[in-house]
Amino acid sequence: MTLRALYVDFNSYFASVEQQLRAELRGKPVAVLPVVAETTCCIAASYEAKAFGVKTGTRVSDARRMCPEIIFVEARAHLYIEYHHQLVKIVESCTHVEQTLSIDEMVCKLTGSQQKRENAIALARLIKKTIAEQIGEHVRSSIGIAPNTFLAKVASNMQKPDGCVVIEAHELPEKLYPLKLGSLNGIGRRMEERLNRHGIDSVQKLYSANRLQLRSAWGSVEGERFYDKLRGLELYEVKNDRSSLGHSHVLPPKLRTHMAALSVLHRLLQKACMRLRSYKLHTSVISARVKFLNRPTWVAESRCSATDDTLILTHALERLWQTYPKHKAIPYAVGISFTGLGNHEGRSLDLFEPDTIQSEKRNSALDNLNMRYGKNTVYFGGAHNALSYAPLRIAFNHIPDLDIENHGTKEK
User: Tell me: the pLDDT tens digits for 271-303?
Assistant: First the structure.
């Protein structure tokens, strides 16, 4: 079995980009925040910060306690996306990028002479060298090389930062044995607990289990797929249709009020509706959520006839808001999500829905004006007090289109 996959994983990506752009941050503990506030969490940490135990999800107050010298910077999503596209082009100049898997991960398919160990390692060095020359030496990557994408990703995590690890077929399974179950992509905390209940508490026991045992542990055919991936087989994933779409935002301190939270929700809803239409989808379920300081999260959900109309979904949000808790707890994060997504072709129209043609014309005009003249050129009034908030965010597996996400402009 030859080497077929080269996996590039950029180390502490958001923090590294900031350190590359700002010389005063280099060599220092840095944490990137969605918004500058003591009650939010870090979305990225430099390796200097990680040395103190700070990681993604660490609260700002805890990070400050762990590392008093830590420097907090607010995320600049548009820059991370621009750097992502530059990095893809750079890697593409060295070898073909088979797939971008997230903002900071991509996989390349090795062919011909590249499948020899020495040539694959030379290619990895070339990629690192070209990135250092064209982007800068502070944006580093760990590269994994293996018979399939799954094992290449595992290899990329085995030596960080700036590592290069090769796993060849003849080294299996022994090279995996020192790893923890949670080090394998696809095994989160809950999955690890399930495996433990089936008597699997190490990678060695996982590898020794047969296909039926893993199917039973996973409760689905995914267990058998995992069996094959561990052995270096390349399984091409069937791309699932988008199942949900939404936006969330951590509120800055001055917006932590009942009415400001609603304004930000309106802003998020209008952004999500524009994305929905750009994908030619409609939704039949809208949900809103608000996180409070020292109180349970409020979540409300409503079904509706399949639609992509901002006005209809705005009315749905207003109805949901009528169930908002009466307590005086302070809101600190809000979110909007659409589920029950479907394509326009399969949509069944509601007998009582307003004139569909007119609503489509209205939404098309809104989108075109905002794309041409910039975000917030035209908007529904509910978002008026939050127009400068709810900026671009990056999900782990979604790289936003800057034009659509920012309505034709880049947010600074």
Answer: 888 888 888 888 999 999 999 988 899 999 999
Query: Tokens standing for 92?
Result: 């593409």
What backbone torsions phi and psi does residue 55 show, to the nearest 5 degrees?
-150, 180
Helix axes 356-373, 310-321, angle to 10 degrees: 90
Least confident span in 161-170, 185-194, 347-356, 357-366: 347-356
d(CA 82, CA 17): 11
CATH 1.10.10 fits 110-230, yes or no: no
307: which strand partners? Answer: 283
Q: Please list the helix, strand and coil fractions of the chain in percent, rounded to the nearest 5, in that order.
A: 45, 20, 35
For 113-133, the pLDDT digits (tens) are 999 999 999 999 999 999 999
Quick check: 261 and 51 in contact, CB under 8 A?
Answer: no
Neighbour count for residue 180 (Cβ, 10 Å):
11
Residue 365 pLDDT level (bands cut at 50, 70, 90): low
Q: Which residues are catalytic?
A: 105
Tens-digit pLDDT profile for residues 17-61: 999 999 999 999 999 998 888 878 899 999 999 999 999 989 999
Closest CA to 379 of 371, 388, 368, 370: 370
The full set of domain ranges for the chain reads 110-230, 244-405
Task: Answer for the pair 26, 138: CB distance below 8 angstroms, yes or no.
Answer: yes
Percent of the chain with pLDDT over 90: 62
- Residues contacting residue 324 through CB under 8 Å, at least 6 positions apart: 258, 262, 290, 298, 300
Asked if pLDDT for residue 240 goes beyond 50, the answer is no
Q: Return d(Cα 370, Cα 406) in angstroms, integer.
A: 9
Burial class (CB in 10 A: 0-12, 13-18, 19+), 347: middle
The predicted model scores a pTM of 0.68
In the numeric block, which tokens belong to residue 250? 């951590």
> Tell me, which fold does domain 244-405 have in CATH?
Dna Ligase; domain 1 (3.30.1490)
CA distance 310 to 278: 13
Q: In angstroms, what CA-CA distances link 301 with 233, 319, 335? A: 42, 10, 12
Q: Which residues pair with 244 in a beta bridge?
A: 339
Closest CA to 341 of 224, 243, 257: 243
